[in-house]
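Dear support,

We are seeing what looks like truncated structure output for some complexes. This example has four components. We would appreciate it if you could run it in full and send us the complete token output so we can diff it against ours.
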Amino acid sequence: MKTSSTKEKILKVSTILFSELGYKGASVRKIASKVGIRESAIYNHYKNKEEIFLEVAKEIFSSPFSLKTEEIKALALRGKPFLNKFVLQYKMLTFDKNNENMFRLLMIELLQNKSLREQFMSQFHDKNIKILSEGFFIMMQNSLVYSSDPIIMAYEFLSTLFYIRLQVTLMHFDALPTNSLATQFEKHVEFFWESIRIDTI
Amino acid sequence: MKTSSTKEKILKVSTILFSELGYKGASVRKIASKVGIRESAIYNHYKNKEEIFLEVAKEIFSSPFSLKTEEIKALALRGKPFLNKFVLQYKMLTFDKNNENMFRLLMIELLQNKSLREQFMSQFHDKNIKILSEGFFIMMQNSLVYSSDPIIMAYEFLSTLFYIRLQVTLMHFDALPTNSLATQFEKHVEFFWESIRIDTI
DNA sequence: GTCTATATTTGGATAGAC
DNA sequence: GTCTATCCAAATATAGAC
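Here is the complete output from our reference environment:
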């Protein structure tokens, strides 16, 4: 039995409603109703709706997705295991209920909120490109993969992951099965690795 | 000097406002104001807001993007020109002002509107996967590229295009430069072609 | 901290004069 | 076909009693 405070409950309910209905669609009324209190009571915990949203939005980019520099190096020296590891993490986030809500909220508000766009570019894009390109660079140095621009290679690799994730999120939203998409992650690694690796006969 | 009827003007203004503010954000009030008439006058042309939106949404998937079966075959037999042609069309849509508005609207409402999601999957995804996989299949038959699953290859190719398009749209929304992203299309073709083609020494 | 009551704004939509 | 006037619903937010 959880004794979650009202404030925590508001945040939890808001997260779900924002990610389903967007900022405009999730009214304070609906939030209060789902929490089980009156609208006015909400304002004892948050100054206004915007403040609730900002609190929720904070979580979007606080995902535990990370690879330390040493870890990148160690894995990249072995080639494919680096990609496997990266995709495994990405896939776990994609299918994690909590993270999925965050991703959905991000996609809904991406074009309505400049701050989210900037964070999307820095946290979702730049950060991942950095990790991946570091890995590819090491692979190139060790003749595991063909030499080319590591940044481009990272971009190519990441874009497909994002697309799969978007599709999974869309399917889940309509309660459609995602079996085939789940294996798409592995197929991606397979395809990509085969197309960049150097044959060592 | 255009003598566009009020009805046309409403549609034009609505397209812009919907693609900037989303369905909820673009109020009938704002639309009427920008058209230069009163709200009530709107209802002489459209039954309600929903009807305006549906009229706008119709255009989203009416893009002139197409490749005839014979055209696909002819280009695919030459390999890379097929990819060049496809990406050129995709790039033109990406940078076309009108199409960009439509894409923005699609992304804003994608998670709010089931019908749009379905159309996105069939018109944006399935349709393009079909064209691309047909092309790749022909290339494989003619030993221009490595043999593998043409559907997977199409998926890999398309996902990057989508990602670039999304980024371009985000940047334009904030009036940021897209020079580097514009060349990303060509880099993608280059990278992808180099990784799938069979060396004919 | 929650309630009732209420203020205020915004948005969708209609009636009827011109 | 457009205007003014008006209605109604929904949403954000505050005041003050308990």
